[in-house]
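EI: anyone free to look at a 298-residue chain?
SC: sure, send it
EI:
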Amino acid sequence: MADKKVYGLMILTTLFWSGAFIAGKLAMIEFTAPTLTCVRFLIALPFIFCVLKVMDKDAWWPTKQQWLPILFVGTIGTFAYHILFFLSVKYTSAGNAALIGATMPGVTMLLTVIGLKERTNARQLLGIALAFVGVITVITNGNLAMLQQLQLNFGDAMMFCAVLSISLYTIFNRLFMMKYTISPYKMTAFTFLVCTVEASPWAVRDALNGTLQAVTLGGWLSVTYMAVFASVMGYLFQLIAVREIGPTRSAVFNNLIPVFTLTLAALILGEPVSLYKAVAVVIIISGIYLATQTKVKG
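SC: here you go
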């Protein structure tokens, strides 16, 4: 596949993922966070398992040794992240959530440096620091004097926790796939399944008490969008891009997510795009670029 077509797929993928911030905020008006998580992945599961069956064929079912790491990663990553993510977009703006979420590569790198003793250098540490300066700009509304009396918005705090969750997921996912020889297709499909099962008690409760019956067409369209476009198509397009142009070049496109989210939030939700948010976008993207694109020599 030509590089230009792959770039187009990755731009479309980041647009799908950006739309999830908008769809999630709209859906949380009508769903609880665990029920929304369950329904989203319940819709996505058949598609993901079809991909798994095609790609892994006879080795699609986990071995006895693979179940525990899959359960662990599915719980701390897929399940916990989405509960925190949906709570975040309910209580803060979609733009704020996307900007805080953009720091995930920097947080992941920081955790690997601290926990796994991976080597880093001054430019990478500068990049991580810059990304956090961008986040501080967001949560203080561009007024750094507010740090003296800062009371963190609940939604922003939930997104910080979500970033920590997905960063741990990324680290353990990589370690466990290597140690237990788990393919990315198998890990994704079965962590989706773990997430769905763990969230199902809340979905059953909401079905029995009539909450789900009250969900409007708009609510169902929002969750279907997240399942089909953000979870399934976004995942498949990313896999194609990683295969064609490699993980590093593919990851660069993630920097478009806060830009697209801020634009969609302004157009669809009417969220204001202020100067401090535009500045924060530049600071965070610059920081993440420095943190993830500079290799340590030696």
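EI: The two ends are 35 Å apart (CA to CA).
SC: 👍
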